[in-house]
Structures are given as C-alpha cells and as structure tokens.
Automatic annotation (TrEMBL):
Residues 1-97 form the Inositol polyphosphate-related phosphatase domain. Signal peptide: none annotated. GO terms for biological process: negative regulation of glycogen biosynthetic process; negative regulation of insulin receptor signaling pathway; negative regulation of phosphatidylinositol 3-kinase/protein kinase B signal transduction; phosphatidylinositol dephosphorylation. Residues 112-212 form the SKICH domain. Belongs to the inositol 1,4,5-trisphosphate 5-phosphatase type II family. This is INP5K phosphatase. One of its GO terms (molecular function) is inositol bisphosphate phosphatase activity. The gene is Inpp5k.
Amino acid sequence: QLNMAKKKEAFLKEFKEGPLQFKPTYKFDLDSEVYDTSEKKRKPAWTDRILWKVKTLCEDASKEGELPEEENLISVTLNNYVSHMSYGISDHKPVTGTFKLEMKPLVSDPLVVLNPEGEWNAEHDVLIRYSAAPELPSSAWDWIGLFQVTFRHVKDYVTYAWVEDDEISSSRNSKQVYMSASEIPKTGGEFLLCYYSNNLQSIVGISEPFQV
C-alpha cells in the first residue's frame, strides 16, 4: 500500500526507507508474538515504518530563483532498521532505525585560529593566542573554553576565559588572553581550546589537541 502511494503522491517519492528485513509488525494478540486470533483475523501487515528525507538547500533557493553551488550539505545513512518483538503492550511491535548523519562545514576555513602558548599545567596561569577573521561578528560575551578532547557539548568546558576581560595583549594579527591556573586540571590529559561566538551561538574555532 505504501509503495503504491509513493507512485501516486509526489511528496512521498522523495522519502527513502530501508529494507524490510523483519516480520510484519501488526496485528498481534496482546503480550504475545501471535498474530490476530480474534474473529476478524486481520492479515499481518508492515504498518509501522520509518521513512526519511534530507531537505537540500535547493528547495529553499528554488523559491528565490537561485540554486547554490553545494546542494547536499547533509547526508544520512541508515545503519540499522529493526522491529522489537519483545514488547507486548500493544497490538503493534515498535520499530527503530539508527542513522549516521554527516554534515559538510558551511565554511572551509575557521573564523578563529587558536594556539596554547608554552607549557600548560596547574602551577601557573596559562596563555592563549588567537587570531580572528575580519568577518567574525565579535562580542564582549565571546569566550574561549578548555575542553577534554572527548567533549560532546559546548557546556562540557573545564574552564574558560573571556576574550575581552582576560585579554593581556593585542596586535593587528593576533590577541592574547590568560586562563587562571586555579581551574586547570591537576591530573592533566589531552585537551582542546574552543572559541565560542555569542553572536553566532556556536563554536567557531578549535585548536589542535595538546597535553596539560
């Protein structure tokens, strides 16, 4: 029924689905893996499905009459598409999909280049040198955070320095800020520096990994 609908409905043609390598997910007797034994004896069906579609920039640009050079900034790959027969609280069996999402960067060069200076340890304040691209919309609320290399979120910082309040030197090509030794991890490890832009609400520069 879905395949027939995809042939007729234009919007459905753009959606993808993984291979159906699991049994029909409907209709089951409750708390069992037995298909409908009621008087209706409904035929088993693949009722529960996961479809996906990646929206491209072309869809937005076409409204304005322009097409971008880079059409697909996002790609999605289906890694896993399964049903879960152990659930019995409904006459359906739930279906899940696991996807890999890849995003191309919107810019080829970082807006900020960061470098830790000297030896980093918890015995003294440390220095950071950075340079920003002219197009960076800088703010007094921008900050540079120290992160473990395994960080997952912008709030996972170990400590941070304000780019204006903690600035100690400035030149045409670069600026220097300090970070207090009191918050540097004494246990050490491998870390990164990240520049957070308040205006862009995102990280716009990441240093190479370095040892503390």
